[in-house]
Design brief:
Structural class of chain B: mainly alpha
Helix content of chain B: over 70%
Shape of chain B: globular
Number of domains of chain A: 1
CATH architecture of the largest domain in chain B: Orthogonal Bundle
CATH class of the largest domain in chain B: Mainly Alpha
Radius of gyration of chain A: 22 Å
Number of domains of chain B: 2
CATH superfamily of the largest domain in chain B: MetI-like
Oligomer: heterodimer
CATH class of chain A: Mainly Alpha
Distance between the termini of chain A: 15 Å
Number of strands of chain B: 0
Order of helices and strands of chain B: HHHHHHHHHHHHHH
Largest interface: A-B, 45 and 57 residues
Largest sheet of chain B: none
Structural class of chain A: mainly alpha
Strand content of chain B: under 5%
Strand content of chain A: under 5%
Distance between the termini of chain B: 10 Å
Number of helices of chain B: 14
Chain lengths: 298, 339
């Protein structure tokens, strides 16, 4: 499916240097309106996180006792929390932290999962069987429960959460990359490379990897969204990032105590940013998958 | 089909060993010394060491692993360090709350998600289809704990329709204990006040969980119906003049439901994960809430028990669903018949 899809999608466009490839990718992406909306949402959150400190005249971790639990107003657009912290400044700081965690976790899972998937799919036989058994066992559990167990086992810290989520997401990449590798393994260009004396690692790196990369990247986009949701959920229940560090899940949990008395803004804004970011990644990932794999387009 | 079930059962021990090892790791690597917690804040080093010895914590790790596995096989999850109560008893008292909530939430989610998905699949690319797809993708992007809080804000703090989010029923109106399932118990004891009170407390958390289910169910049902609808045997059935309802029920729905059943296992696992968050938000006294308290007390025996019980539940659910799937799918049902 994947090999022919590029030709189908961009028949008239010439192949060539970096700029050409970039233009072609953009052309593919811009065919899907929902992907563009997703990309826009993600960019909005990234810019909000990066520009926040320049535009918001408050520090995310210093508050004033006089400004406690203020409703949103012109001086505090998102209001303030129990400690008099400006919620907008904290939401921006949390955007940086949450996106950082999501990219680290997804990057690690992408690299580790791709290597295992390539080796497993290319080697086949006993190695493949054992690896797949392990992957299936891990996949049988919801990522969140698995991460909860691992993070609790490794000790309650941000490092544990990163390790736990990486372990939980890696099998998804193994799965995707393995099945793509299996599909490529017997194709003529691989045989040609082997006949001309290319080594195993070279075939994997130069000939198979470029062909499985698109599928892995689609998976990565969706994983970014899961990572945001799971990081926030874990810190909401007290694992990983802890107050007073600004993190979306921590902030929602601070607001949880106030919601019954009607102070809605403390939880609303950080939760809204979680939703916007995850929706952005989901739309982008779905759109990319539909574009790259016309068979699954629905 | 027997072969299929046997093959599935053969995988169970492997998964069990993984679960037990994971549980052991949680017990032994979690920072915070359980002996210190048990001995209390003002205990001397000597007292702590004695507590350690009584818990077997001074033994080498392989002896600990043996003791641990032995205890686990007898259903002994150790003690809650804070209360000194047996974790198994605590779990026993709390599981009906979790099962009741999860089941009601799951069924509610199916009741909403399935018809939506089927309708969207039958009329693909219409306005309802686009709206449905958008709702579904937004649905899977929302953090469930945040949705719960928003529901509390609107229906309790603002409108005052819902009872305060403080558990399974208002204090003093709980039904007499028969099975531990409040709705069932209040019916069994013919106690309408208790039934009404439990139902009111159940509605918001169940809706929160249902949202978690409805969006992915609608999504998978839609794409499945869409795929089956375009198959040649459906065209054939329509062409042969069968009434639309018959085609829908016997040709389309029957085949389209197979992927949905496969999806249910994943969804139930996902739901159990979401359950802990919903229980925290609504102060629901179930297993998730118990795990949450224990995490914050640095008390590992209950957390470990939670992960193990959850893993076992998921394992069992996926086994049952595999069998249901095989039974629904003639291709699998008859596959093993010849050999």
């Amino acid at each position: 499916m994947g090999t022919s899809s590029e030709a189908v999608l961009a028949p008239a466009l010439p192949t060539g240097g970096f700029r050409e490839r970039w233009r072609r990718s953009w052309w593919v992406l811009s065919r899907s309106r929902l992907s563009l909306v997703g990309l826009g949402l993600v960019l909005f959150v990234v810019l909000f996180g990066l520009l926040g400190p320049l535009l918001i005249p408050y520090d995310p971790e210093t508050g004033s006792a006089a400004d406690r639990e203020l409703a949103p107003s012109f001086s505090h657009w998102f209001g303030t929390d129990t400690f008099g912290f400006d919620i907008m400044a904290r939401t921006a700081a949390a955007a940086r932290l949450d996106l950082f965690i999501a990219f680290v976790v997804t990057g690690l899972a992408l690299i580790i999962g791709s290597v295992i998937g390539l080796v497993s799919g290319y080697a086949g036989g006993r190695v493949d069987e054992v690896l797949m058994r392990v992957v299936d066992t891990v996949l049988a559990f919801p990522a969140f429960i698995l991460a909860l167990g691992i993070a609790a086992a490794l000790g309650n810290s941000l490092r544990s959460v990163i390790i736990a989520l990486t372990v939980a997401y890696t099998p998804f990449f193994v799965r995707v990359v393995r099945s793509e590798t299996l599909a490529r393994r017997g194709q003529d260009f691989v045989l040609a490379a082997r006949c001309s004396g290319a080594s195993g690692p070279r075939i994997l790196g130069m000939h198979i990897l470029p062909n499985v990369a698109t599928a892995a990247l689609v998976q990565a986009t969706l994983t970014l969204g899961w990572a945001i949701l799971d990081t926030a959920a874990l810190s909401f229940i007290g694992i990983g990032v802890k107050p007073p560090t600004a993190e979306w899940g921590v902030m929602v949990s601070e607001g949880a105590k106030l919601i019954v008395t009607g102070e809605w803004w403390v939880s609303l804004f950080p939760g809204l940013f979680i939703a916007i970011t995850v929706l952005g990644f989901n739309l982008l990932g779905d759109g990319l998958r539909d574009m790259l794999d016309p068979d699954s387009r629905s | 089909m027997t072969r299929l079930i046997l093959r599935r059962l053969a995988a169970v021990p492997v998964v069990l060993i993984v679960i037990i090892l994971l549980g052991f790791l949680i017990t032994n690597i979690l920072p915070g010394n359980p002996a210190e917690l048990r001995a209390g804040q003002y205990a001397t080093t000597e007292v702590i060491e004695r507590t350690e010895a009584s818990l077997g914590l001074d033994e080498p790790w392989y002896t600990q692993l043996r003791i641990y596995t032995g205890n686990l096989l007898q259903g002994d999850f150790g003690e809650n360090s804070l209360t000194g109560l047996s974790v198994s008893d605590d779990l026993g008292a709390r599981w009906p709350a979790t099962v009741e909530l999860t089941l009601v939430g799951f069924l509610l989610g199916l009741a909403v998600g399935l018809p939506l998905g089927v309708m969207a699949g039958l009329r693909s690319n219409g306005i309802w289809d686009h709206a449905g797809r958008l709702v579904a993708v937004v649905g899977v992007s929302l953090p469930v704990f945040w949705v719960g809080l928003l529901l509390i804000y609107f229906f309790y703090a603002e409108l005052g329709w819902a009872p305060p989010p403080t558990g399974r029923a208002q204090i003093g109106t709980e039904p007499d204990d028969v099975t531990g399932f409040y709705l069932l118990d209040s019916v069994l004891t013919a106690d309408p006040a208790a039934f009404w009170s439990s139902l009111k407390s159940l509605i918001l958390p169940a809706i929160t969980l249902a949202l978690l289910v409805a969006a992915p169910v609608a999504r998978i049902a839609r794409s499945s119906v869409l795929e089956v609808r375009n198959q040649e045997y459906v065209t054939m059935a329509i062409a042969s003049g069968l009434p639309r309802r018959v085609v829908l029920r016997r040709w389309i729905l029957r085949n389209a439901m197979l992927p949905v059943v496969t999806m249910m296992g994943i969804l139930l696992g996902y739901l159990i994960g979401g359950n802990i968050l919903v229980e925290i938000v609504f102060a629901w006294p179930g297993l998730g809430g118990y795990a949450f308290e224990s995490i914050n007390n640095n008390d590992f025996a209950p957390v470990q028990a939670f992960v193990i019980v959850t893993a076992l539940a998921i394992l069992m659910i996926s086994l049952v669903l595999d069998v249901i799937y095989a039974w629904l799918n003639p291709r699998v049902r008859y596959a093993g018949a010849e050999d």
